[in-house]
Specification:
The protein has about 280 residues and is mainly α. The chain has a single domain, classed as Methane Monooxygenase Hydroxylase, Chain G, domain 1. The protein is about 60% helix and about 0% strand. The protein is built from 14 helices and no strands. Helix 4 packs parallel to helix 12 (about 215-245). The structure holds protoporphyrin IX containing FE (HEM) and N'-Formylkynurenine. Protoporphyrin IX containing FE binds near residues 51, 104, 124 and 127.
């Protein structure tokens, strides 16, 4: 037998002149009109779609992370963890997605790279917002967004707000854990720095996990989050390496060297320091 033999059932809705349809609900006119190559090269479409899908997922990561922060501030730990679980799945998708871009050869990329000018992922405000929310605060990043007042406003707000980790530590303090006062009152516009006394508090949780099961589990969720973030950074670095080698970046950085240094960053240093202490 040939052809598609599946009946289109009588009940199937067909007239959307006066009703909301799939496309109108999702604003597909706008979404699918947003791929605007600046060169004539075939592979630029891949480059654009890869970035746009990443930005869409980043939008959801930000939405979920900000919600998790607000929930923690209200002592709603279980709901906050639900948000974080979703973020972890998105992170995996973002990391897996690098394999699509890895099909772009250096020869193909060079065809349209000169058309990109000084545009660079370095200017992604949503990426920077996620970094800020997770605690990698850096006021020096704000001027890059001066030409986009809305993005600048979101970044300023996140810079000045407690990070996810700050909210977690405040929550632990409210639960009676002896979080040092200087940690609770730190200048949240800067990145958190390792505090050995905080490591000791968290180590006690890990040493007696059964007694502290829910917060112990929450700590491991944060470790997963950071681990996933680092995997994305690493895949970005390796993709950059195979695509432009040691060339400087269009954003003006050294390129691979700059991205390599990001792998030394940590959002939750004490949660990793705990590993050294366990069993010691
Ligand atoms: C062939 C593909 C890519 C190349 C060659 C590349 C290259 C680079 C380079 C060299 C930098 C350093 C800044 C600069 O001087 O430009 C950078 C930063 C960045 N790129 Fe890409 N990139 C690629 C794809 C992507 C994709 C798909 C995303 C997804 C959104 C992305 C997001 C970012 C972000 C967020 C930064 C800033 C990182 C930070 O500040 O730590 N890049 N990229
Ligand atoms: N920084 C890249 C260019 C680049 O990847 C890019 C250019 C425009 C929009 C997004 C980009 N993605 C990530 O940096 C390069 O140096 O080739």
């Amino acid at each position: 037998m040939t052809g598609n033999t599946r009946d289109i059932e009588a009940g199937v809705h067909r007239d959307f002149r006066e009703e909301m349809s799939y496309g109108s609900y999702l604003a597909l006119d706008t979404l699918l009109d947003a791929q605007r190559p600046v060169s004539q090269h075939h592979d630029e479409m891949l480059f654009i779609v890869q970035h746009q899908t990443s930005e869409l997922w980043l939008k959801l990561v930000l939405h979920e992370t900000r919600s998790a922060m607000a929930l923690l501030a209200e002592d709603e730990m279980r709901m906050a963890l639900k948000r974080i679980a979703r973020v972890k799945h998105i992170q995996r998708t973002l990391t897996d997605q690098w394999s699509v871009l890895a099909t772009l050869t250096p020869t193909e990329y060079q065809e349209f790279r000169p058309f990109l000018g000084h545009a660079s992922g370095f200017q992604s405000w949503q990426y920077r917002a996620v970094e800020f929310a997770l605690g990698n605060k850096h006021a020096g990043m704000l001027p890059v967004h001066a030409s986009d007042p809305e993005a600048h406003a979101v970044l300023s707000e996140l810079l000045e707000a407690p990070s996810l980790y700050d909210e977690f530590l405040r929550y632990l303090s409210r639960r009676g854990y002896p979080i040092p006062q200087r940690v609770l009152e730190r200048d949240v516009t800067t990145a958190h720095e390792l505090d050995p006394e905080l490591t000791a508090v968290l180590t006690d949780i890990y040493r007696d996990a059964e007694q502290h099961w829910d917060v112990y589990e929450a700590c491991e969720e944060l470790v997963d989050l950071e681990d996933n973030f680092q995997l994305w950074r690493f895949r970005h670095l390796k993709t950059v390496q195979r695509t432009i080698g040691m060339k400087t970046g269009t954003g003006g950085s050294s390129g691979v060297g700059f991205l390599q240094r990001a792998l030394d960053l940590t959002f939750f240093p004490e949660l990793f320091a705990v590993r050294t202490e366990i069993g010691a």
